[in-house]
Amino acid sequence: MIFASFDIEFSLWNSGHQLIAGIDEVGRGCLAGPMVAGAVIFPSNAPLISGLADSKLLTPKKRKELSNIIMEKAVGFGIGEVSSEIIDQRGIVQATQFAFYQAVQNLKQQCDYFLIDAFALKFVDINKQKAVVHGDRISASIAAASIIAKVYRDELMEKLHETFPDYGFEKHKGYGTLFHRQMIKKYGLTSLHRKSFSLDKFL
After folding, report:
1. Predicted model pTM
2. Number of domains in the chain
3. Which of 59, 2, 62, 53 is nearest to 24 (CA)?
4. Which listed site, 80, 104, 136, 200, has its alpha carbon 20 to 30 Å from 150?
């Protein structure tokens, strides 16, 4: 497994930036449930938390363990959540930016710089951000953001399973697995499903 580092952050800290937020989203490609963005700020020149990596490559137990450590060690962290209804209304591109915006607003700190996994932030000066391809595998701040976002979203989908017990949300978390598609065909669409994703093809 590839573990993330503070290489990018150290370069920014050494150039004078103090509050650097790592940002990532989870659930963008799901058929159901919200998209969630996370934002994390570590103290400048902080020691690296062992095991930070792309949240998708970690076990649920390890993600939960790391999420607790991240929230304890971080200067600040924020979560942004965008519902399926907003995704359908605004489209996935605008909804992604809205999730990022919410996460940044919930940081409650004025950041000097932003590191984002793949996407640029439309609401931040281009000179104050860097979009990093595969950032959750490279930047510890982005990896941390992906971890807290995934833990939050997975726990939310497990709770939503209680309301919609036939769809298996507690297992696939809304992604388009074969079982999920079969349940859509059998039971139809719920209020959690993203109608703009052309899900009628599964009916």
Report:
1. 0.95
2. 1
3. 53
4. 200
